[in-house]
Amino acid sequence: MLRTLKFIASHPLTRTNKIPAMLHFLSWQLGSRLSKKPSICNFTESTKLIAWPGLTGATGNVYCGLHEFEDMGFLLHFLKPSDLFVDIGANIGSYTILASADIKATVIAIEPLPATFHILLQNIAINQAAKRTETLNIALGAKKDTLKFTRTHDTGNHIAAAGETDVVEVPVNTLDNVLYGKVPSLIKIDVEGYEAEVLSGATNTLNDPALKAIIIELNASGGRYGHNEEHIHNNLIKLGFTPMQYDPFKRALSEAAYFGTHNTIYIRDLEFVEARLQQAQPFHVRGQHI
């Protein structure tokens, strides 16, 4: 609990209003445990998420409005209804709901774990976003295959390494095969260390100039599969992408010296992206217009 309270105290949407945010956290914890049922909670001003204690993919949003504020803020300011967004490692659908229900963009949401995929479908349904969202209960990699995934680590579930037990077998395809010529404006990749394999199966997509931005998690977990994340970083730079940080309050991008320990936003065609960010309608969350 102490870790969660520190997160709330430092989060950009709650750090100037700590006491009400922490009271909200404590109230939600008590109420959800007494009811012993999943809760449908407010996400943004116009969207909702199913949540319960321990469901990390949802609870950070319940506590602070937008769990990953900079990256989610970038999505909300960058995407337009005419865009295609691909959510790789969609989990319970936080990014998918922002794109499909808030922005009304077209979304392909890819989540390999059946239990998590079921929650993703429920979140899409309660936000009436099914017509704009294609959902795939598969994993992505460098080729068609099957892989074993862990299933007891919540948002940290990953492709099982040697010796890991309690796993589920999942079909694998490539991103290029899935898109079949369609090109997204934005891709989010959160696959717990398997990013290099996903990108290896996305050569055509990555080389298309219509792809303007990638939000990717590079947190050193690729080492469990023998992948060097600096190699991913350098390859993206060769493709014309630049690692950036985003401040949603100022709508300002600044170049990152290197990739971070969590998500990094890689931008191509900076002038185009910055123009979109400045022209976007504000989004509304936790009583703030951003």
From TrEMBL:
UniProt KW Methyltransferase keyword: yes
Methyltransferase FkbM domain sequence ranges: 87-241
Annotated TM spans: none
Annotated Gene3D superfamilies: Vaccinia Virus protein VP39
UniProt-recorded Gene Ontology molecular function terms: methyltransferase activity
Pfam families documented for this protein: Methyltransf_21
An example Gene Ontology biological process: methylation
UniProtKB keywords: Methyltransferase, Transferase
InterPro entries: FkbM_mtfrase, SAM-dependent_MTase, SAM-dependent_MTases_sf
Protein name per its UniProtKB record: FkbM family methyltransferase
Organism lineage string: Bacteria, Pseudomonadati, Bacteroidota, Sphingobacteriia, Sphingobacteriales
